[in-house]
Design brief:
Number of strands: 5
Number of helices: 7
Low-confidence stretches: none
Order of helices and strands: EHHEHHEHHEEH
Radius of gyration: 14 Å
Largest sheet: 5 strands, parallel
Mean pLDDT: 93
CATH class: Alpha Beta
CATH topology: Rossmann fold
Number of domains: 1
Length: 137
């Protein structure tokens, strides 16, 4: 099973944003343990670093990113990815890029806390971390 994981899941974990961090951590553990194939966008790495730099020291952030890079496959962002994202009717371009990459790697599911931005996308099932954990239960 291929799972594309949105940036906000990692931010929830690293910043321990309650109540979201619990289910986000469970999704991470599924990928970490090889129960699902986890994919992320290359922009996720940058966004984690940028958003968390004020809350954590750089050593902790780099250690987290090192772990993420071992537990997840970083999807390629190519010209065709950008063209696909440009063709999508999504208001958030970062989400469009992530959805295009998820399509490109053949992901069956996309996990995000921001499901509303993906509501018109029908090729991949989009779940919150909690709903995904309940679904595969």
């Amino acid at each position: 099973m291929k799972l594309f994981v949105d940036t906000n899941i990692f931010i929830d974990i690293l910043l321990d944003r309650k109540p979201f961090s619990h289910y986000s951590s469970l999704v991470y553990k599924l990928c970490e343990n090889g129960l699902v194939e986890g994919y992320i966008a290359p922009i996720t790495v940058n966004n984690i670093h940028y958003i968390c730099r004020k809350a954590h020291n750089i050593v902790k952030i780099k250690a987290f990113l090192h772990k993420v890079s071992k537990d997840f496959t970083i999807a390629p962002m190519e010209s065709m990815t950008i063209e696909k994202a440009n063709s999508l009717s999504m208001s958030d371009y970062e989400d469009a890029l992530q959805y295009a990459m998820a399509l490109q790697v053949g992901a069956e599911y996309l996990v995000t806390r921001n499901t509303k931005d993906f509501r018109h996308m029908t090729h991949i099932k989009v779940y919150t971390p909690e709903a995904f954990i309940e679904r595969i239960g």
